[in-house]
Amino acid sequence: MKKWDILKRKEVYKNKYFSVVEEEFRLSDGKTSKYYLVKSCDFVSVVPVEGEHIYMEKMDRYTLRRRIIEIPMGGIEEGETPLAAAKRELKEEMGITAKRFRKLGFFDASKGHSGHKGVLFVAEELTLGEPEPDLVEKESNIEVIKLKLRDVPDLIRQGKITDSHTIASFYLYMLHCKSPNKQV
Amino acid sequence: MKKWDILKRKEVYKNKYFSVVEEEFRLSDGKTSKYYLVKSCDFVSVVPVEGEHIYMEKMDRYTLRRRIIEIPMGGIEEGETPLAAAKRELKEEMGITAKRFRKLGFFDASKGHSGHKGVLFVAEELTLGEPEPDLVEKESNIEVIKLKLRDVPDLIRQGKITDSHTIASFYLYMLHCKSPNKQV
């Protein structure tokens, strides 16, 4: 990749969740242009599986004004490891603890606006318990649902699961953890 | 989904690509809280296929400071239909025209921050030609690559394709257009 020649960098907006940074850079022809980056923390994405089942959640999404099906995700807090964030989010949102977490990789979440990424974990050997939702999660009316892994592709195809991060996480899980002839 | 009781709405930041809207809403307990929404246009995502091959592109991504592999995507302009945007982006970024476009559905792009979505098309019966990049695309040094469809899952699994929107688009394409026993 070529080196972008950044001339100026300025934070032009900030709230408690993200900021916007304006960068002026030099074009190949010598002129200048600007890029606006949304800066927010990386997050974790957790695929909780038990045998041939996966746990997902239905929740009200404020940004979409819709109730959608997702897997647990949430920001990695300052000083927190991705693994600790994965454990926390799974417990907060679903009330689930897991004996085994494996990191499968990461994905770029929104490359047009932001450099932030999702770090993907699979959680196994699960114990169900009580969720411990934070303020926003509490308002989202999360309902934990148990699905057969083999039914998820149809839900995606039928447009019943629409969240790109959940779709990418599920597909990555299938590619990593299910052999080709087991794929559904 | 419950009705969010929105008390105030205010645009708190704006540039030529997106804006930030602050909304104050009432919590279940009667207190109030705020949500910050990134407002940007919906976009199209195009899967260009020819027989058992798919065209993808390598490009420098300013937000990531990395060169990544993607499929063509781009914002739907004011007054433009998604189909027109799909045709335009495929031509601009890859120089490809297609006789046949089919809409497969949509995905939520970044539900934590934004309500914007990607509208997914498959493009078939392709003719290769000269790209017509806009300013940002020109700076991204786009290189068109032709891959075997059956090699893409391995590239995703190996972390060589990391863009969640490309991963979700490819998986949706496979679910819609390839029968289960043909899946790779």
Secondary structure layout plus pairing:
The structure is a homodimer of 184-residue chains.
Chain A: E1 5-14, E2 19-26, E3 32-39, E4 43-50, E5 53-61, E6 66-70, E7 73-75, H1 82-94, E8 96-108, E9 117-128, H2 135-139, E10 143-148, H3 152-157, H4 164-177
Can you walk me through this structure?
Chain A is built from four helices and ten strands. With 184 residues, the first copy, chain A, is α+β, with helices and mostly antiparallel strands. Chain A folds into two domains: 5-39; 43-179, Nucleoside Triphosphate Pyrophosphohydrolase, CATH 3.90.79.10. In chain A, strands 4, 5, 6, 7, 8, 9 and 10 form a seven-stranded mixed beta sheet that branches. A three-stranded antiparallel beta sheet of chain A has the order 1-2-3, with no helix packed on it. The first copy, chain A, is elongated. The interface between A and B is large, with 67 and 67 residues.
